[in-house]
Structure formats: structure tokens, C-alpha cells
Amino acid sequence: MVQQHGRLHAKTLTLMNHQALAYRDVDKNEEALQLYREVHDGCKETLGMQHPYTLASISNLANILFEMDRLEEARPLLEEALERQSEMLGPRHLDTLQTAHSLALLFEEQGHLDKAEPLYIRAYEGQKSSLGPKNPTVLQTAVNLAGLKQACGRLREAEDLDREVMTGCRELLGDRDVQTLQSGNSLARLLHEQGMLQEAEELLLEVLQARIELLGDNDPATLASLNNLGGLYYTWGRFSEAEPHFFAALEGRRAVLGLLHPDTLQSANNLASLFQARGRLDKAEPLFRESLDGRREVLGVRHPDTLTSCSNLAVLLHAMNQLQEAEELMKEALEGRRQVLSDHHRDTLTSINNLAGLMRSRGKHVDAELLYQEALTGRKKLLGNTHVDTLMTANNYGLCLLNRGLLKEAEAIFLEVLKNCRKTLGVKHSYTLTCANSLGGLLHEAERYDEAEPLFREVLSGLRSQLGDKHPDSLTGANNLAVLLFAKEEFAKAAELFQEVLTGRRAQLGDKHPDTVQAARHMAAAQQARARCCKRLQTHT
């Protein structure tokens, strides 16, 4: 074809474009990229910059760069394509709207949520107007817009969109279509984040069963459902149910996708997180290292997923009190995210927040305070004052001030954060309960016991309601209230709660875990204090 028509002939360029697409389908992205560059150069020379094929070639080149995570190269191409398509084809043309959608995806990936949202809305509204609300393209754009709203903390708006998408998919494609199941999966993840765990579980079970029937046990989508259901049980504190789901997903992905596939490495990361939550840190560490080593090999040391693994291992090492290596990894993750994602990306701000927590643990409270201030300022600008990430950073900043003995300043922050959490998230949300616990802890430290007690009781009631009596967080809530009651010399009530904590810790963690040992010591101290109190009363009577 090249010899017959010449390399710049339109038919040759069309054939090269098809060949590039074929390369993309088999993940030969470097070969595809080279062909897309040649097609783009040929279209410019042969057809001119204003020709629709040339405009399409810009989008194709940008999209392959995007897929290869070369975002800085992709961005100016997409911006150029959008500008030229808007001018030549019109702002409501479907090709223009698709480019707007692609640019929105890129901005979101870079953490520029404020730039992504108007482009998503432009694409969604335009596509819906041209194609109707029940078109698959429109529904996919709606899914992405919902994901952005979720990232911005506007969960109710995201939920409304996700429900709209799932209804549309069911009407258009049926209950068992692949896209319908994906929409159910997306809605379930959102419900999960909002703490609506019962409805999320029902949806995830429905999607898992349908995928097993349609695709088989070992299809990647089925394995993803197993992983998602494990994640739900993990959040719920149903660790004994989460573990077999995470394990099955990991083993299935190792067999089907290979040891170094990104999804396999993600499953290793998830199982490690579960082991960490169950206090089995020795089992968590090799899995976190497997995930990090694999991602470094496959994706490179500066890939966002690699930096996430770096951060996760650092947080584990922090918990294991291996503070030197933890600090090195946290700084590596932070430096990488600053370079790759920018100073103001959501993940970068998470790294700053994590490093601040480590500095706080090492007693470097001034360093921690500066880092918390940077994270808080960045999150307020990026996400707003009432986003959950902003609220939690503000809470952590307050804890840092509390550690420095600045009780008045910390209390003002805790009161403001708790007010915003209750207003934005509701009184039973896990973050609201965390902030109430922080304020209760401050009041306890200030020996304002009567003010602290209702807060600790609110926290314990909320945790039991949301997670059940046996969840580790519920046991921590019970422990905090028990310690307060002990300080108030209400030893019988304290002993009753300490016994509950001890029983729960033993069942979950075993007799030798540090939390179980501490619970046993608290229980013994409460019993001894109660016995002394009873003896004094008998003496005086």
C-alpha cells in the first residue's frame, strides 16, 4: 500500500491509523504511538491543519499519550484539538464533545478538578442533547462526571447521577449487560463511601453473582467484584469475611493476569491492608513490599500507583515503629508526587498529611505543624472547607496543636471541624465520630470529664450502630469511654467496658497482641481499683 500510493496518500494514512489501533488493542502502545505520530504528521502535510482527519489525528495521538501516562505531552494536544474542533466542527459536534470529555479525564488525573468539571458537564449535556439520555456514550460520561463529584466530596450529587446511569443501563441494555453491571458496581462503591453498607453489599453481591454466571469465576471483572466485596467487608469490620474475598481475588489474578499485572499488585496491596488492620503486621509487610517492587518494575519508580505503594508501605512501617525507613519512603512518595502530579494534587496532599503524622509521632511537632498547615491550605483550595479530606486534615492539625499543649487553639479547631462534619456528613458518619472523639480526648486531657463523657458516648453509640459491637473501632470507642470513667472513679462501669474490650481484642487479635495485652492491664487495674473502693466502704461502715 505504501509503495502503490506513497506514504502520504490518504489511503496509506488510513491503513496506518487502523494498524495503530490494532497495536493499541494488544497493548503495543509504543508501536501505536509511533504510527499515530506518522499519521498526524502526514495529515498535516497532506490535508492541512483544518481537515477533520488532521483534527482526529491530534486526538488519537493525545489519547495514546494519555493511556501511557504521559500527561504533560497529551494535555497541549488535547487543548489544541478541542480549540480547533470547536472552531471547525462547532462546540456541540460529537467529536468536539468527545475531546472535551478526554481533556476532562486528563485534568482529573492531574488533580485539576476545577478544570475537569466544566468540561465533563459540557460533554455530558451536549451528548445528552444530541444522543438522548439513554445512549451508552452519554451514560459513560455521566459515570465519569459522577466520579468527579465523588472525588470533590459531593456524594449526594454523585449518587443521583450513578442511580440515573444504572436505571438507564437497565432500561437500555437489560439487567445482565456488562455495562449495567459496571454501573451497579460504581453505585455500590459510592454507597460504600457514604457508609450505606447494607445497600452497597446487596448491589455488590448481585453484580458478583451475575458476573460469575455471565463471565465465569476467573474473568477479570468477576475477580474485580470479589475484590470490591472484600473491600466492603473490610470497611465494615467483617474481617473474617473480607479475607477470603481478597485472597480469592489475589490468587485468581495471579493465575489469570500474572504476578506483575497492575490488578494483581493492587490485590496484594488490599490483602496487606487487611492484615495490617487485623494487627498481623508481619504478614502485611511482605505483601506491601511485593506490590511496591512489582510496580517499580512494571510501571517505574515515578508512576502514581508505585508512589501509592511506597506510601502504603511507609504507613505500615510507621505503625511498626520503623520510623527511619518509614520517613525515607514517605519523603520518596511526597517528592515523586510533587514532581509527577504537582504540589496541589490530591495524592500529594495526602503524602504531606502522612508525613506530618510521622513527624508528630517522632515528636517533631513544629515540623508536623508546618506540614499540616500546607496540607490543610491545599485541601481547602482544591476541595473546599467541608470536604472530608479537608476536615480530617484540620482534625489532625488540631491534634498536633494538642500535642504541643495548645489546648485553646486545638479546641477551637475541633469545635469548628465537628460542626462542619455534623452538617456535611451527618452525626453518624465515621469522620464525624473521629472528630467528636478528638474533642472528647482534649476535654478529657483538660480534666473536663463531664463535657467529655457525652462525646465519648456519642462516638461509641455511633460506632456500634454503623459497625457493630465487635468492630475494632467500636472496641477502641469503648476503651476510650472506659478510661474516662476510670478517671471519674466510676470503677464498676469502667471494668464492665474494659471486659468487653478485652473479650473483643482476644477474639480478633489473640492473647499476645499489644492491644489485647493493654486491654488486660486496664481490666486488671479497674478490678483492683473497684476492690479497693469496696474495701474502703466496708471499713467506714
UniProtKB/TrEMBL annotation:
Residues 316-343 form a coiled coil. Gene3D superfamilies: Tetratricopeptide repeat domain. InterPro entries: NLR-like (IPR053137), TPR-like_helical_dom_sf (IPR011990), TPR_rpt (IPR019734). Keywords: Coiled coil. It comes from the Eukaryota. PANTHER family: AAA+ ATPASE DOMAIN-CONTAINING PROTEIN-RELATED, ATP/GTP-BINDING PROTEIN-RELATED. This is NPHP3 protein. It comes from Symbiodinium pilosum. The lineage of its organism: Eukaryota, Sar, Alveolata, Dinophyceae, Suessiales.
